[in-house]
Amino acid sequence: MDIVLIIALLALFLLPSFFMMRKQRKQQEELRSFQQALNPGDRVITAGGIHLVLTDIGETTVTGEIAAGVEVTMEKIAILRPADQVSPAQNAPIHPEHANDDAAESTGSDQNQDDAADAQGGGGFPQHPENDDRNN
């Protein structure tokens, strides 16, 4: 009776681990086959979240274009998945703090707040003696 209990407990703990390892191994194999099947012109996403279009595929490295005329070379293992029909936003602002510039121009409220902060000496910098022009 004790042997049956021991076998049941081992099965209870070992079977889930076995199935998880099997699933991970399958995912790794799928990723490896995807990376081996890469072709120039493929749109992919890297481990760092960078979207690029592949221009050259080497044995262990790939070269891809991030933007017009901007190419990077990285390890092939950094490519995680295809970028399914993801295209870069047209005329997207480069800096997030300028994302509302068009809206601010139409309402003027954001610009008025910035002007008020500048007039008070804030200008986006904390009030500190090193930032005070009167100390110079």
TrEMBL record:
Compartments, as annotated in UniProt: Cell membrane
Chief place where the protein resides: membrane
Species of provenance: Corynebacterium propinquum
Cross-referenced PANTHER family: SEC TRANSLOCON ACCESSORY COMPLEX SUBUNIT YAJC (PTHR33909:SF1)
Entry-linked NCBIfam families: yajC (TIGR00739)
Annotated membrane topology: Single-pass membrane protein
The protein's name in its UniProt record: Preprotein translocase subunit YajC
Region (Disordered): 84-136
GN (gene name): yajC
Keywords: Cell membrane, Membrane, Protein transport, Translocation, Transmembrane, Transmembrane helix, Transport
InterPro entries for this protein: Preprotein_translocase_YajC
Keyword Membrane: yes
Domain of life: Bacteria
Family as reported in the entry's similarity comment: Belongs to the YajC family.
